[in-house]
């Protein structure tokens, strides 16, 4: 199924074959987590959710920043708003709604590659943690910067812990320490550190070629299984996994994949950069 891409405000979209490049471009805020950015990204994720003609989403930032974190101007306006007795605090409501973005990015059936070339602070750090693969450059800077502002990394906490574990999450969350690209790679926050533009291009092309050899439906289902396998008892998971395997094996991708292997040829879905 191939769907149309949404109109966006601060995210530039470019499709190349089965790859979708989403570039955050909001220089006035250094690509902060504004309502416009949240709305754009959620619209993109909804549009690609059932589109198996797409396989990879490359999320990156323009103008030397990935995402500078919270929209402090917007938060300041909300801080000044009175909360009626018995009414929900608008800050609580907006934070909970913003958390949907991280959940949807984490559950995106495409393989999400975050290219961090510049600051990834606060919510930007969280978005990187929701990606499947993270590439960092020499300009990359990562920080859980919330506590330095007197606030907390509320919605991103589960994804940060899932990415780097509680030990590193506690250290970074409770100190606000900044990591460069090499340091991020050393703790598993980044999967690849690319010291120059040529290395970045080569690494990204290699990853996209690897993804291009994988069946898109099988990749999406593998990502789902990896996400849910630790949320249920092992006995229950065995049943879920067996049903998944049988459905994939009997489906068009499974039939084509086995046939292509037997005939010593690339499967029909193989795509190279």
Automatic annotation (TrEMBL):
This is Enoyl-CoA hydratase/isomerase family protein. It comes from Camelimonas abortus. InterPro entries: ClpP/crotonase-like_dom_sf, Enoyl-CoA_hydra/iso, Enoyl-CoA_hydra_C, Enoyl-CoA_Hydratase/Isomerase. Belongs to the enoyl-CoA hydratase/isomerase family. The lineage of its organism: Bacteria, Pseudomonadati, Pseudomonadota, Alphaproteobacteria, Hyphomicrobiales. Signal peptide: none annotated. It holds the Pfam family ECH_1.
């Amino acid at each position: 199924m191939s769907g149309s891409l949404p109109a966006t405000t601060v995210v530039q979209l470019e499709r190349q074959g089965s790859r979708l490049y989403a570039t955050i471009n909001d220089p006035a805020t250094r690509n902060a987590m504004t309502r416009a950015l949240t709305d754009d990204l959620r619209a993109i994720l909804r549009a690609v959710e059932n589109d198996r003609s797409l396989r990879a989403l490359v999320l990156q930032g323009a103008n030397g920043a990935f995402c500078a974190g919270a929209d402090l101007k917007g938060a300041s306006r909300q801080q000044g708003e009175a909360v009626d007795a018995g009414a929900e605090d608008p800050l609580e409501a907006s934070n909970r709604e913003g958390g949907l973005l991280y959940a949807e990015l984490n559950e995106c059936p495409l393989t999400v590659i975050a290219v961090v070339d510049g600051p990834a602070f606060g919510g930007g750090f969280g978005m990187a943690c929701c990606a499947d693969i993270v590439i960092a450059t020499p300009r990359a800077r990562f920080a859980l910067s919330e506590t330095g502002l007197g606030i907390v990394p509320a919605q991103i906490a589960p994804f940060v812990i899932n990415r780097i574990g509680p030990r590193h999450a506690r250290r970074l969350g409770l100190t606000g320490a900044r990591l460069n690209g090499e340091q991020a790679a050393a703790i598993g926050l980044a999967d690849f550190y690319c010291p120059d533009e040529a290395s970045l291009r080569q690494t990204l092309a290699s990853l996209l070629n690897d993804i291009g050899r994988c069946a898109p439906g099988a990749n999406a289902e593998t990502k789902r299984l990896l996400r849910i396998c630790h949320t249920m008892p092992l006995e229950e998971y065995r049943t879920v996994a067996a049903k998944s395997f049988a459905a994939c094996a009997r489906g068009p991708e499974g039939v084509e994949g086995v046939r292509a292997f037997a005939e010593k040829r690339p499967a029909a879905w193989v795509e190279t950069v």
